[in-house]
Specification:
By secondary structure, the protein is of the alpha/beta class. The chain has a single domain, classed as Rossmann fold, CATH 3.40.50. The chain is 41% helix and 20% strand. The strands form two sheets. The protein has a seven-stranded mixed β-sheet, with helices on both faces. Helix 2 packs across helix 3.
Length: 233
């Protein structure tokens, strides 16, 4: 029962951000910034990563996807954090089929892609967590899967593992037209952020900006935490 309550609380925390008009407006501003950056080039596949765990990366993925979907684009979220996937929890769908089961031939793609409760927004969850995530990400099958999905969706947003601890984010950047680094105030230090950027630029990732969130602001003599977005090109 305790685990069930924890799961419900986890889901409500993410949906609270979506239903809050001020927070949703911030995500729309982020969407607009991405679209303006790519006005003369096609940014169809967008990877979001972070320096460390717990920086709001997955929250940003789901809400940015919702912002794109609300602009009448057909959007797919792909959870490629094959070690600690959470998108299926955010959208409250099953993860028994997903990327890993499609790549290993254990399920069909059409069965693995899940509709969400929002128009134009779909999710391809991680699936069963594999023993060899890096090898799956490097595979020709992954490359072919991304290429096929690009023919079906207007925007594909990838939830990637943190860039500092693993090579996975750098590998995934090969499939992405743009990479965004999500940074949470008070979580990652300057050196972690700098090293993450270095790891991505070393593999020629198209790092278009940094999202700074969870900034501490003072209102009426009290401190509160809010999501704010800043881009640094």
């Amino acid at each position: 029962m305790a685990n069930s309550n924890k799961k419900i609380k986890f889901q409500r925390e993410y949906y609270r951000l979506r239903m809050d008009s001020a927070s949703m407006e911030a995500y729309r501003m982020l969407q607009t910034n991405v679209e303006f950056y790519g006005f003369d080039k096609k940014l169809q596949v967008i990877e979001l990563t972070s320096a460390l765990q717990g920086e709001g990366k997955s929250t940003t993925v789901s809400n940015l996807a919702l912002a794109f979907a609300q602009s009448n684009k057909r959007v797919l979220v792909i959870d490629l954090d094959l070690r600690k996937p959470v998108q299926h929890k955010i959208f409250n769908v099953s993860s028994t089929t997903g990327v890993t089961t499609v790549l290993t031939g254990k399920s069909r793609l059409e069965d693995a892609i899940k509709p969400t409760d929002r128009d134009n927004l779909y999710l391809l969850p991680c699936g069963i967590r594999p023993p060899n995530p890096t090898e799956l990400l490097r595979s020709d099958s992954m490359n072919q899967l991304i290429d096929f999905l690009k023919t079906k969706y207007d925007v594909i947003i990838i939830d990637s593992p943190p860039a500092l601890a693993l090579t996975d984010a750098a590998i995934i950047s090969n499939y992405a037209d743009a990479v965004i680094l999500v940074v949470s105030a008070g979580v990652a230090d300057y050196n972690s952020i700098e090293l993450s950027i270095k790891n991505l630029t070393m593999v020629n990732a198209n790092l278009i900006g940094v999202v700074m969130n969870n900034i501490k602001t003072k209102r009426g003599g009290r401190y509160s935490y809010r999501y704010k977005y800043n881009y640094y090109y």
